[in-house]
Amino acid sequence: MINIKLYGKLITDKQQLTTELIIKNGYGVYKKKGLWHCMQCGSTSVHDFYIYESKYTEVPITYCRKCVCLGRMDNNNSVMITKSVRHVSSAQYELKFPLTDQQNYASEKIVKAIIERQNLLLHAVTGAGKTEMIFNGIHYARNQGMNVAVISPRVDVVIEVSLRLKEVFKNEEVDIIYQEQPQQFNGHFVVSTVQQLFRFKQHFDVIFIDEVDAFPLSMDVTLMKAIKLASTYSYSHIFMTATPPKILLKTIAKENHILLPARYHQRPLPIPTFKYLKINPNKMQLTFLRILKQQTQSNRITLIFVNNISFMEKIYSIYKEHIAELTYVYSDDVYRFEKITQLRAGQYKVVFTTTILERGFTMAHLDVIVLNSQLFETATLIQIAGRVGRKADSPNGLVLFCHQGVSFSMLSARKKIKHMNNLAMKKGWIND
Ligand SMILES: [Zn+2]
């Protein structure tokens, strides 16, 4: 193994260290003022700690259940925290295309927030070109020797963003860390999943958090705590999402909410249309078949979102007899990656899918249809609609919500999308 430095990290084995300084030594969980504390995830909630008697120890063992999947923290095994170190790098980067006015605007706001150690919420529509907006901020921070992390709850987003960053920051040592991928460099510029961030302590001056709301809701508080524990004493956190959750809107000062309503290709977001359609999962329906046929004949790729796997399997078995290029996919599907590769290769024209394709999936000539759309939440509907028209050479497409009664979420999603288009128009950031 190459000799890397584990700066600003929670360590369980001293053998891993060479010249790093240890600033804290103790047990993985410890009691303070009557409360258990976890060194790894920072939890102090009584519900997170499990206590049992052990015949090998004099006192009962207490461990943290909250972060046990990342390595068990207990009151029997000691852990160490190493001192963070800063290191300057040039962080030169190359842009293939000049930034749009909106991207420049966001980029300046980010640099300002980093200088002032402020938190920022970039409320950017789907397809706004978020990654390009952070280049200059990274450049500035690394030039000052600040440690930078770009994190996302989703591995697929981590992989995609890391490839883009490595491509533009050619001479930087970019650490890409997720489950199967350990740290390779000294951790000054990290792209990782949120879970991997739990291992860093008091290390990052700047953290970009992509798609923060894709994190399971119940983990919200833990997530915020982990991000804070991984940060230096004064820091800048930059949150980026198309659908900011309420907790985030509340936490970040209003003047630090930056609305980015335009897509990078400067065409408006497609507006959802509504259609009443009651799908019977046990019977072939001509209206729905006609829609499917129309889609396959129009040379489009259509994602059809459903909220229930057994419902999906039923309608698939009915309509596969009539539509040759049809498939379905869901998160536990063992052929998931294979099917998505085949979809990209043009083997399918219609895909029944659960919300796993709600984010991060980009392809040209895409239409989306949501079945039973009244059952979906506003944020999900906005993300689904956001799959359509992302490519500059195919900026339009169909967004159809098939419902059994228009819901508040559907109306809200449509209203929010329209609002962003109006705003972008007023700013002169789109031309249509
Ligand atoms: Zn924990």
> Please, what is the CATH homologous superfamily of the largest domain?
P-loop containing nucleotide triphosphate hydrolases
According to DSSP, the number of beta strands is: 20
Query: What is the radius of gyration?
Result: 24 Å
- Mean pLDDT over the full residue set: 93
Contiguous uncertain segments of 5+ residues: none
Note the topology.
Layout: E1 10-11, E2 22-27, E3 29-32, E4 35-38, E5 49-52, E6 61-64, E7 78-82, H1 101-116, E8 120-124, H2 130-143, E9 148-152, H3 155-168, E10 175-177, E11 189-193, H4 194-197, E12 204-210, H5 220-229, E13 231-241, H6 246-251, E14 257-260, E15 273-276, H7 286-297, E16 301-305, H8 309-319, E17 326-329, H9 336-344, E18 350-353, E19 366-371, H10 378-385, E20 399-403, H11 408-427
Parallel strand pairs: 8-13, 8-14, 9-11, 9-12, 10-11, 12-13, 15-20, 16-18, 16-19, 17-18, 19-20
Antiparallel strand pairs: 1-7, 2-7, 3-4, 5-6
Helix pairs in contact: 1-2, 10-11
The protein binds zinc ion.
Describe this structure in words.
The protein has 432 residues and is of the alpha/beta class. It folds into three domains: 10-82, no CATH class; 101-260, Rossmann fold; 273-427, Rossmann fold. Helices cover 29% and strands 22% of the residues. It contains eleven helices and 20 strands. It has helices spanning 101-116, 130-143, 155-168, 194-197, 220-229, 246-251, 286-297, 309-319, 336-344, 378-385, 408-427; strands spanning 10-11, 22-27, 29-32, 35-38, 49-52, 61-64, 78-82, 120-124, 148-152, 175-177, 189-193, 204-210, 231-241, 257-260, 273-276, 301-305, 326-329, 350-353, 366-371, 399-403. The strands form five sheets. The chain has a seven-stranded parallel β-sheet. A six-stranded parallel β-sheet has the order 15-20-19-16-18-17, with helices on both faces. Strands 1-7-2 form a three-stranded antiparallel β-sheet, with no helix packed on it. Helix 5 links the parallel strand 12 and strand 13 (231-241). Helix 1 (101-116) packs parallel to helix 2 (130-143) and helix 10 crosses helix 11 (408-427). The N and C termini lie far apart (55 Å). 43% of the residues are buried. The mean pLDDT is 93. Zinc ion binds at residues 38, 40-41, 43, 64, 66-67, 73. Zinc ion binds next to loops.
